Amino acid sequence: MTLSNYLFTSESVGEGHPDKVCDRISDTVVDIFLGAAPEARVACETLATTNKVVIAGEVRGPSSITNEMIEHATREAIKDIGYDQDGFSWRTADIEILLHAQSADIAVGVDAAGNKDEGAGDQGIMFGYACRETEALMPAPIFYSHGILSALAKTRHADPKSGLGPDAKSQVTLRYENGKPVCATSVVVSTQHDEAVDQEQIREIVRPHVLKTLPEGWMCEEAQFYVNPTGRFVIGGPDGDCGLTGRKIIVDTYGGAAPHGGGAFSGKDPTKVDRSAAYAARYLAKNVVAAGLADRCTIQLSYAIGVSKPLSVYVDTHGTGKVDEARLSVVLQQLMDLTPRGIRQHLGLNRAIYARTAAYGHFGRTPDADGGFSWEKTDLADSLKSALA
Question: What local confidence, expressed as pLDDT, does residue 115 receive?
Answer without folding.
Answer: 45
